[in-house]
Specification:
about 300 residues; alpha/beta; six-stranded mixed β-sheet; four-stranded parallel β-sheet; CysM; TrpB-like_PALP_sf; cysteine biosynthesis; amino-acid biosynthesis; EC 2.5.1.47
């Protein structure tokens, strides 16, 4: 009998949705978190990374052996490095030099080449350099910020998974906003199932530096972002996000990154305002890629 074994690409998605047991306290609400760190390359970005490359292949925009270029703050870069390794592409990633050592090492482990810009140039500078390199014929920019294949991946997988896993009972969806692909795709799907579902986006408070989420200047706002798809935006401070992140590990056994701590912190705020709600937050990655930054050092 012939057995069809999966490839690593087949393991992207279908991540667990689990209930928080201690952080919510006494409440009539159910708080659930989707463990996207269980994806093969360790984050929610595995979904759009594979989608952007696969769909570009199907359109004939790229073919194995081509050079791909992308600006990234971390998780997308790691996911794209994995996807490029699976598919046989040369991958050049451009990122701010203050990204964690674990992130840089993970990208190069998959064979990607790194170009670092200064912290002052930031993601805006990285995006500008990627555009210049493409204009100079050095490769093809996938452009997670303007590529419809990014939110489409979440419309096709993340959203349906959440709807199915909650039995259609979800009332609130909470997600950090960086490229905004996750919240755009999931919002579109969930609103088609039930317009009453509240979509809550997370952005950093002024002065906060939470990896993976941004308060974009207007001229750099991702083209895939549609403000009409977000019902509420929560400003999150760094201290609150980091504290809830550490509590997630200590009290729930869930080891996650800072933006995930912020998403859960926002879900806890919402839980204090409502009753009999089913609140789902995205845990976009795992905490082990932040250890060198000191956020988990004993306090």
């Amino acid at each position: 009998m012939s057995v069809q074994y999966p490839t690593i690409a087949d393991c992207v998605g279908n991540t667990p949705l689990v209930r928080l047991q201690r952080l919510p306290g006494e409440t009539s609400n159910t708080l659930l978190v989707k463990l996207e760190g269980n994806n093969p390359a360790g984050s929610v970005k595995d979904r759009p990374a594979l989608s952007m490359i696969t769909r570009a292949e199907l359109r004939g925009d790229i073919q194995p052996g081509d050079t791909l270029i992308e600006a990234t703050s971390g998780n997308t870069g790691i996911a794209l490095a994995m996807a490029a390794a699976i598919k046989g592409y040369r991958m050049i990633l451009i990122m701010p030099d203050n990204s964690s050592a674990e992130r840089k090492a993970s990208m190069t482990a998959y064979g990607a080449e790194l170009i670092l810009v200064s912290r002052e140039e930031g993601m805006e500078g990285a995006r500008d350099l990627a555009t210049r390199m493409q204009a100079e014929g050095k490769g093809k920019v996938l452009d997670q910020f303007g590529n419809g294949d990014n939110p489409s991946a979440h419309y096709a997988s993340t959203g349906p998974e959440i709807w199915q896993q909650t039995g259609g009972s979800i009332t609130h969806f909470v997600s950090s906003m960086g490229t905004t692909g996750t919240i755009m795709g999931v919002s579109r799907y969930l609103k088609e199932q039930s317009p009453a579902v509240q979509i809550v986006g997370l952005q950093p408070s002024e002065g906060a530096a939470i990896p993976g989420i941004r308060r974009w200047p207007q001229e750099y706002l991702p083209k895939i972002f549609d403000a009409a798809r977000v019902d509420r935006i929560v400003d999150m401070g760094q201290a609150e996000a980091e504290e809830v992140m550490r509590r997630m590990a200590r009290e729930e056994g869930i080891f996650c990154g800072v933006s995930s701590g912020g998403a859960v912190a926002a879900a806890l705020r919402i839980s204090k305002e409502v009753e009999n709600a089913v609140i789902v937050a995205i845990i976009c990655d795992r905490g082990d890629r932040y250890l060198s930054t000191g956020v988990y050092d004993p306090r």
